[in-house]
Amino acid sequence: MNTPIFDMHCDLLSYLSNVAGANAFNKDDIGCAIPWLLDGGVRTQVTAIYTDVNEGSMKLASKQADIFVELLKQDSRELALCDSIFLNNWEKEPTLALLASIENAAGLGNENAEWKSVTEQLESILEKVNRLAYISLTHHTENRFGGGNYTKGIGLKKDGQKLLDYLSGRKIPIDLSHTSDLLAEGILTHLEKERLNVPVIASHSNFRVIWDHPRNLTDEFTQEIIHRKGILGVNFLRAFLDTENPERLFDHILHGFEIGAGEQICFGADFFYTKNFGDPSRIPFYFPLAENASKYQSILTTLSQNLNQDQLERLAYKNALHFYQNLWN
C-alpha cells in the first residue's frame, strides 16, 4: 500500500527555532523530519507555529514564520508551498507541500500587547506563510484568549471573542484541540450567537470515550465538528491514545467512523522534539507502530482489515484535502 498522506499537525518549526543545530532533514531528532515524511508518503504536512505564554511569544512566532519560508527554499525539488494551486492539482503533484498553522494564539499577542499589535501580527504572519491551516486560541495553559486543556473552569475571554470576530469570513479554521471544555463551548456559542463564518476543526485530538484525557474530544464536541463539516485529526502520542496499549490507535480511528465522522477523520500525528522534555513519565512518547512519519502506510495496512479502500483514502488524505479545497476555492 502506498497511499498519499495529508497530516494536520507536527512541531517541526518549533524544533527548528528552539534546538541548537536543528536540521529538518535529521531523522535522529524528530519523527517528522523531511526524510521520514517522504518515506511515509506524506504529500501535505501542516507545520505548527507554536509558542508558550510569555513575553517573547510574538517574536518567537515571527521567527517560526520566517523559518517556514526559509525551509521551502532549501530544496525546491522536494518541498513546495501548499496553496490553492497545489491543492487543486494535489493528486498530480509529486512533491511534499507544507502548510503553516498557529498553535496557541499567544504567538499573535502576548498578555500585554495592544489589540492593534495582535491583528498586525496575524497579518504579518499571513503575508509570510500565505495561508493558515488553523488557529488554536490556547495550548495547555490559560492566556488572554481563553483556557487551555489543563485549565478547568476557564472559558472564552473577551479577546478570544474579538479574535473570532476578526477571523469571520477569513477562511481560517479555529482549532479545538487544546481548548478547555469550557473554552470549546464558549467558541461554539459565540460563533452561533454572532453568526460568524469560522470553520471549526480539531487538528490533533483523539476521543475521550476511548481514552479519558482532557486533550481528547468528548463525543459532544466531535458531533459539533461533524455537523459543521470540519475535520478531526487523530493524534499518535501515547499519552492521548492509551499509555499501555498500542492497538488503541486503531480503536480511536474506528470509533471515528462508527460515530459518523467518516468524512471528517484524518491524521494529526503530532510529532515533536522530545529529547528536552521535562516529564520522564511520558517516555516513550510514541509506540513503535507510530513512532515516526514513515509508519502511515503500515498503519493503513493494519486498518485495511476493518476499513474499505474508500474509507482508508478518506482517512489518509481525502477528508483533509476536500476540506481545504472547498474552503479555499
Automatic annotation (TrEMBL):
This is Dipeptidase. PROSITE patterns: RENAL_DIPEPTIDASE_2. It holds the Pfam family Peptidase_M19. Transmembrane segments: none annotated. InterPro entries: Metal_Hydrolase, Pept_M19.
